[in-house]
Amino acid sequence: MNWRSPKIAYPLTVASLIACISLQIVWLRQLFVAQKTQLKDMITMKVGEASKASIYNSLADNKENSPTVRAFFYSPQWLEMREAFDGLQINNVHSVFNYGIDIDSSFVEMKFSFKNTPVKSKPSIITNKIKTKDIISLSDSVSLNDMINEVKIRLDSIGVEKNIYYAVYNYDNEQLTTLNIPADKINSVVYASKIYSFNLKHKHKFQLLISDLTIPVLYRMRYYIISSLLMLTLTITAFYFIIILLKKQKLYADAKLSFTSNMTHEFKTPVSTVSIALESIIKYKLINDPEKLNHYIEICRSEMGRLDMMIEKVLNLNVDDNALQPLKIELLDLQIVLKQVLVSMKPALDNVHAKLTVNFPEVPCFLNGDPVHLANVFYNLIDNSIKYADKPLELEINCEYQENEIIITFKDNGPGILRNFHSNIFDKFFRVPTKDDTHNVKGSGLGLYYVKEIITQHKGFISVKGDLGLGSKFIIRLPCA
User: Fold this and answer.
1) Residue in 153, 158, 149 with CA at minimum distance from that of residue 198
2) Which of 207, 265, 271, 338 is deepest in the core (most CB within 10 A)?
3) Are 339 and 276 members of one domain?
């Protein structure tokens, strides 16, 4: 089994990506649950602290400022004692709670009495210096507001600011007396604290209710979420480039295989032509006919030159893609180079009865460049127009100045190139695909690659316009001297 095959590599890559995303989702979900539990524990602690603060604030109408008393009422031991005292619900056990402030001290007294003979339960007896029921109710209401404010302040410190509600119960029988949560959110309560007393009047108890903790939990997880998203983004990007690389390698391998096949035919053609020419010279004893002999020798020389050029292309494949072609830069008039190419290609253009239109400016087009390589660029573009012409060729060549650039265009009426392949035709080995993957015009797929490399080394740009059936227009932009 070939693990590098695209049929296996692509599904494995996608499966790995899905597994990575799934693991991140599972991890974030578990982290969310853990953070939510931790936040609930913190809320419980904050409500307990608020209860202690509210009780201390209500003590003797805030007249008690002793550090010792404050330390006592803010201690966790006091909260445990209060919860135990408030939660004592046993028949025949009566609790008595007293507190007060003397001249030089404050006192808190808890007393339990146990009836040996069962009797009807009586409410807790609470004695203190405040006797008026109205005053006690007013003080209880003030303490409730103080408790609510203390809770909100402490919850704000841990990022819980919304969806906060409360319930108030009777101290003796814990019957609900006040509930400020909307009816549509009662069933969505995600956190309900223990029931706490909030003053020493023993009138009511307080319970915190929260209908949603999602946003606070997500806020606490923000750095984990950001790092997770960043890691997923990097992973997806890496997988994307791997897939693109695999696809390009496959295209490169297919193009190289096609190149090998095409070059085999390309090599066989001149070899066969030379072989036939030499056989004809010997068979027909053309040494006695100098005119025909020279003609056949010229054919051999032409084909050998063509073969040498193809061998040179193959040898250049061993050069790294980033290696630069050796250039001999000099100041030259681009019009002169282009006119020399047209003169050398006139027989080939006449052979296909091409209609050539040339538009040159009256002033010279000076630039710093290599005349040999630029001539090869023009030769390749004109030769392609000739080879791929499927009807009498109409070729228009323009050269003009535009700001600080020299623009040369080659426009023909050939079969054109599908827009989808405009970005690929300058790639090494690339040839526009055909239906049966066979090309009537043999080539190496290196001509336009060479053209772009040379233009790029001259700090210029080349692009193509047109579409299938509409001909092609190659546009070269070069910086003028």
Assistant:
1) 149
2) 338
3) no
Q: Are residues 211 and 302 in the same domain?
A: no
* Domain-terminating residue out of 259, 288, 316: 316
Check whether residue 295 and residue 408 sit in a common domain.
no
- Asked if 304 and 335 sit in the same domain, the reply is no
- Whether 258 and 312 map to the same domain: the answer is yes
And the tokens for 137? Answer: 């109710």
Query: Does 171 have pLDDT greater than 50?
Result: yes
Residue 290 predicted with pLDDT over 80: yes
Contact 468, 417 (CB under 8 A): yes
366-369/330-333 β-pairing: antiparallel
Beta bridge partners of 331: 368
**Mean pLDDT calculated for residue range 118-144:** 56
* Cβ density class 74-96: b for 16+ within 10 Å, e for less: eeeebbeebbeebeeeeeeebbe
pLDDT value at residue 440: 54
pLDDT of residue 126: 43
Q: In this structure, are 269 and 141 located in the same domain?
A: no
Is 396 inside a domain boundary?
yes
The whole domain housing 299 covers 248-316
Residue 237 lies in a domain: no
Distance CA 204, CA 141 (A): 9
Q: Which of 260, 291, 316 is the last residue of a domain?
A: 316
In 87-187, which residue ranges form alpha helices assigned H by DSSP? Answer: 133-156
CB atoms within 10 A of CB 410: 19
CA distance 197 to 144: 9
Q: By the 8 A CB rule, do 243 and 10 touch?
A: yes
Separation between Cα atoms, residue 243 and residue 9, nearest integer Å: 9
In a domain, 236, yes or no: no
Q: Going by C-beta distance under 8 Å and a sequence separation of 6 or more, which residues neighbour residue 416? A: 466, 467, 468, 469, 470, 471, 472
Half-sphere exposure of 357 toward its Cβ, with a 13 Å CA cutoff? 10
Going by pLDDT thresholds of 50, 70 and 90, the confidence category of residue 136 is low
* Sign of the alpha-carbon torsion through 121, 123, 128, 130: negative
pLDDT number for residue 310: 67
What whole-number distance in Å separates Cα of residue 481 and Cα of residue 405?
Answer: 9
Q: Residue 406's pLDDT band (boundaries 50, 70, 90)?
A: very high
> Domain with 452 in it: what CATH number?
3.30.565.10
Q: Which helix (H) or strand (E) holds 168?
A: strand 164-170
- For residue 392, being part of any structural domain is answered with yes
Question: Are 175 and 51 members of one domain?
Answer: yes
Which helix (H) or strand (E) segment holds residue 60: the answer is: none
CA distances from 12 to 3, 103, 383 (A): 9, 83, 45
Segment (H or E) for 100: strand 93-101
Considering the domain architecture, whether residues 175 and 197 belong to the same structural domain is answered as yes
